[in-house]
Design a protein that fits this description.
This protein has 279 residues and is of the alpha/beta class. It contains ten helices and ten strands. It folds into two domains: 4-145, Rossmann fold, CATH 3.40.50.12370; 157-278, HUPs (Rossmann fold). Strands 3-2-1-4-5-10-9-6-7-8 form a ten-stranded mixed β-sheet, with helices on both faces.
């Protein structure tokens, strides 16, 4: 069951509009009768270290006060939207920089069911750090909402990207609340060549498992030769008009500022439907 959702929210000083992920999280909470925790960053204007030392403390305090007020204002707007939607909500303001926000979201989410985050824009390193921390430091599934997202959450058609690995298995299990609402579930196994590893469960194995959960599932395998795995997944998701893509999240490093694996990075860059990832 889905009962507890965490979502970061963007103060209006960073943008005149909220992330689509914010409204998506509220709609999701309404759909599943879940509680939402919204976390707003209080980012003081970045200053050169030497300049910051030279500036009067009163000026620095004023910068922090403005950042706090901006974060509180965003939290109040979100809480008001939650009240109007009938969604139980609490808010939290986090001081510091991108790393402090990312850590706060990841830690808070460990006592939750799901994190909803925005698709990171290409030029926004702090949004990317937020997704990285949510995916690799929280131990919870992450639902990434594209910045072109419009409308209410829908889960009629779900596409599962399957390779038989533990990350994909974790993602499928975490997606069960959404799969229960799906009218069709398609499992897509993509490989660099036509060979299927014998020691890993196939898409057909997963289809049989999900059928025992009462789902109508189809499975197929595709070989990506002249096209990347992420492009093939994106193409298949578009062809199937998928409302949700489920996949494992990969990285080449366990350090902060991770380098995402190719399929993960490609999906984050070009996603057109919400993607549920787990690691």
């Amino acid at each position: 069951m889905l009962r507890d959702i965490v979502v970061p929210i963007r103060p209006r000083s960073m943008s005149s509009t909220a992330w689509p992920a914010e409204q998506y999280a509220l709609s999701l909470a309404s759909l599943f009768e879940a509680h939402v925790t919204a976390i707003a960053p209080s980012f003081k204007a970045a200053l050169n270290g030497i300049l910051a030392v030279q500036l009067p403390s009163e000026f620095l305090d004023e910068l922090q006060s403005r950042a706090d007020e901006d974060a509180r204002s965003a939290a109040e707007v979100f809480a008001d939207s939650a009240r109007r939607a009938g969604v139980p909500c609490e808010t939290q303001v986090v001081r510091g920089g991108p790393t402090q926000l990312a850590d706060a979201v990841a830690v808070r989410a460990r006592a939750s069911d799901l994190i909803v985050v925005p698709q990171p824009e290409e030029q926004s390193l702090w949004e990317r750090e937020l997704v990285e921390a949510a995916l690799f430091d929280s131990g919870r599934p992450v639902l990434i909402v594209p910045y072109i997202q419009r409308g209410e959450p829908r889960f009629e058609r779900v596409l599962i990207a399957w390779d038989g690995g533990k990350e994909a298995a974790r993602a499928v299990h975490d997606a069960l609340p959404f799969l229960q609402r799906a009218k069709s579930v398609e499992i897509l196994t993509v490989s660099a060549d036509a060979r299927q590893p014998e020691n890993l469960p196939s898409g057909t194995d997963l289809a049989r498992h999900l059928a025992r959960h009462g789902r109508q599932v189809t499975a197929k395998a595709m070989t990506g030769v002249d096209i990347s795995v992420s492009d093939l997944l994106l193409s298949q998701a578009a062809d199937a008009a998928a409302d949700l893509v489920v996949m494992g999240g990969y990285a080449h490093s366990r350090l902060r500022h991770l380098v995402f694996g190719g399929a993960t990075s490609g999906m984050l860059r070009s996603m057109t439907a919400p993607v549920l990832m787990a690691h």
